[in-house]
Amino acid sequence: MAEYSKNEAMDWARENLRGQWSTLMTPFTQDNQINESGIRSDIKHIKALGTKGIGCTWGMGEFWSLTEQERLKVYDVVADEGRDDWLIAAHITDTSLKNVNHFAGYVESIGFDLLILAAPYFVTRKEEQVLEFVKAVADSTDLAIMFYNSPQFGIVLDENWLGKVCQISNVVGVKEASFNKDISINTHLNLGSDAIISTPDEWILFAGDEMGFQQQVMFANTSDWRFDKPGSNHYVSFVERAMSGDLDKAYYEKHIKPIKAISDKWWQHVVAEQKGAMPVPLCKYWGELMGMTGGSVRSPLNDMPQSEKNELKNQLDNIFGK
């Protein structure tokens, strides 16, 4: 549970937004309801990998398919399961400012530590609109906010506009997931001394090593529970060390690069098949193979074809054993 005032948000973030943060899927039952026991099981699984915290109900959590009451239910379950011994973040983006402020107030009241906020999609076409929207949300809450810069929301801010967003009092940083390496690098170089900047992929760590910057948190991805199992957490171990300045390239080459190559291939394939949508079907099935709840995605997405599931399973069996 967050224990900081609004003007202490940045100090809190510098101390606590560190290491590997995970992204939670939203499992559904066979009758397409929120799978509460699945969420609880997945949280226990991810905790056991050594992650520092988790975010829920964003792109991989299929927030766009959830009713208001379903989002609130996910928040309730995550808070109940995670708040006492973990850090928890809620993605609250919506096209309605009224809804966003409601979600922000609700999660603050039940013990969340952090908010994740992206651009209000559909009508937002100008950077000024994004800035105004984020400021309106920030004014309504005392919680720290990580801004999520992603093309999934219809607009990508460059490093100059991200700098303006980070000037808002309790906006503590950016999840820079634009898939534009120049924006990621320039955001680190221009804003990294004043805000928490995180590009959620390992390439940024090696780029930073060459260019003289270092991010302190991997915020956030699915790689922990897709690449690791309890008792064999090479990915989380690598990230934790890298976030404190120990970038072990040999360890990465031996333990992570082979499965990363599989991930990159499938990620690109599924995104292309879906014409740019996030590869939620891939991650849900991959998680199932690794001991997570998994299950089906909601319309308009479709599950992976069985032939592709079989191919992926065979490739992972070669890495982890059957």
Notes on the structure:
Helix 2 packs across helix 3 and helix 12 runs antiparallel to helix 14. It contains 14 helices and eight strands. The protein has one domain: TIM Barrel, CATH 3.20.20. 48% of the residues lie in helices and 12% in strands. The termini are far apart. The mean pLDDT is 97. The protein is globular.
CATH architecture descriptor text: Alpha-Beta Barrel
The proportion of residues forming helix, as a percent range, comes to 40-55%
Helices and strands, in order, run as HEHEHEHEHEHEHEHEHHHHHH
CATH topology: TIM Barrel
Unreliable runs, pLDDT <50, ≥5 residues? none
Number of helices: 14
Q: What's the CATH C level?
A: Alpha Beta
Q: Radius of gyration from the CA trace?
A: 18 Å
Count of DSSP E strands?
8
Q: Structurally, how many domains make up the residues?
A: 1
Share of β-strand residues: 5-15%
Q: What is the average per-residue confidence, as pLDDT, rounded to a whole number?
A: 97
Name the structural class.
Answer: alpha/beta
Global morphology? globular
Main sheet attributes: strand count, strand direction, barrel closure: 8 strands, parallel
Please, what is the CATH homologous superfamily?
Aldolase class I
Quaternary state, please? single chain
Biggest sheet: strands side by side, in what order?
A: 7-6-5-4-3-2-1-8
Distance between termini? 40 Å
